[in-house]
Amino acid sequence: MSDNESVLLEAYQRFQETGPEWGGHHLSNHGPMAVEAMIRHGHADSVHRWIDNYTQRLEEPPRGLVPVTEDDWREALGDLKRVADWTTLFHREVAEHPWREVLATWWPRLLPGIAGGTAHGAIRVGHVVHSLLAAEADPLSEPRSADSSDNPYVVELANALGYWAACWTPVAGDPSRRPGSLRPADALAAVPPVADQEKGVPYRLSQLPTTDGWQSALGALQAVDDPEQVPTLLTQLIDATVFHYLSYGHGHAVMLVHASTAPTAVLRVLPALPRELWVPSVDVAWQASAALTAACTPQHAADRADLAVHTDGATMVEDTMPRAVEHGDEHVIKFADTAVDVFARTGDRDALAASSRCVALITLAEAKGRARFDGRTPPK
After folding, report:
1. Which residue among 130, 195, 228, 361 is the one 20 to 30 A from 303 at the CA level?
2. Which domain holds residue 123?
């Protein structure tokens, strides 16, 4: 077993003692996602210290209410009060079936509700499946069976699927059978913002049915019907969302991150899915990204001149993830993880600039929050 895998397994075990949310305001536990990204990018030595700090805000796992069964699971979808019931179901599922079989069964059931909880359930699944696939491909990996129900990877997958099921929330519109032909960047640019962005993401998403141009924008992305086309379309979508963040991240510095990390999660899960699920997966990934873009994009882009501090070439790829880890915010870390992937694919330094701006915007948001708490005038 490699040192990195040892740290990841220990990290997953530490998070088994924590609940999926904290703070009473549906704030998701990002710990398992952030540490997976940190370790994959070579920052295993920072993980336990990061966990020590992060877990101070977390809560114990909630208690179950009524078991979820094969007969009534549809009625329990999207009921956050049943999150412990859902995780119990998935722990039973992975104890009785190989993890890939569980994923293939439940992925199409959960996919229509990907946007629930700002897509955190699906994103958490994406990180752990990425780890499972990497462990299977590594000859030095943990020798215990990948399908053992006490394997920390599999336990984390069960917890992630359970959280997704409990958060499950559909988004207005049908992303399949699209008549459009636009490339992802052009389709994303055509997404209309919702009118009222003063409240949280669920409220913003509730405005989509009455947002002029939403359904036509949803149908504008080029359609694919061949699974072979899906990875390319999905990577182009991820690239477009990261570049979009550079110009529009000031709309909601934290929540707009998920327009990028949600399709990234889908991309990372694809190799573990039956190919017949690839096309519906990219359809829903597009819907989630478009919905979060509509919910969090301001009316006006940042002036390019104001972005010079991020775009002038000073941001280097080798500095991007270390800077995110040093900052410590879980969203900064996850966005940097995706931005580095985009830069590796495209060579476009705007991806690194987007990560740099994410650091700056979230730092400012944190300062404003502390100022309000302390009764001081928030910084501008």
Report:
1. 195
2. 3-167
Sign of the CA dihedral running 134, 139, 142, 146: positive
Q: What is the DSSP string of 37-85?
A: HHHHTT-GGGHHHHHHHHGGG--PPPPP-S---TTTHHHHTT-GGGHHH
CB-hemisphere CA count at 13 Å for 259? 33
> Does residue 262 sit in the same domain as residue 343?
yes
Looking at the DSSP assignment, which residues form a beta bridge with residue 195? none
Question: Would you say residue 221 has pLDDT above 50?
Answer: yes
Model confidence pLDDT, tens digit, residues 181-193 = 999 999 999 999 9
Report yes or no on 190 lying in a domain.
yes
In our burial notation (b when 16+ CB lie closer than 10 A, e otherwise), range 203-218 reads ebbbbbeebeebeebb
Residues 64 and 12 in one domain: yes
- Whether residues 163 and 62 share a domain: the answer is yes
Report DSSP state, residue 22.
E
More confident site: 378 or 105: 105
Indicate the SS3 state at residue 129: helix
Taking the CA atoms of residue 143, residue 148, residue 151 and residue 154 in that order, the dihedral angle to the nearest 10 degrees is 120
Residue 179 lies in a domain: no
Eight-class DSSP state of 347: -
Sequence-ordered list of residues with C-beta below 8 angstroms from that of 282, at least 6 positions apart, any chain: 224, 230, 233, 234, 237, 266
| Two tokens, residue 151 | 């394997």
Mean pLDDT across the chain, nearest whole number?
93
Decide: 83 and 42 in contact? Cβ < 8 Å: no
What distances in angstroms separate CA 244 from CA 16, 177, 217, 351, one per listed residue?
35, 25, 16, 10
Q: Does residue 252 surpass a pLDDT of 90?
A: yes
Domain endpoint, select from 167, 195, 223: 167
Query: In whole angstroms, what is the distance from residue 129 CA to residue 281 CA?
Result: 15
- Residue 371's pLDDT band, with cuts at 50, 70 and 90, is very low
Say if residue 84 is in the same domain as residue 193: no
Looking at this protein, which amino acid is placed at residue 77?
Answer: L
- Contact at 8 Å (CB) between 104 and 274? yes
Of 22-36, 116-130, 290-304, the one with minimum mean pLDDT is 22-36
Pairing state between β 27-28 and 21-22? antiparallel
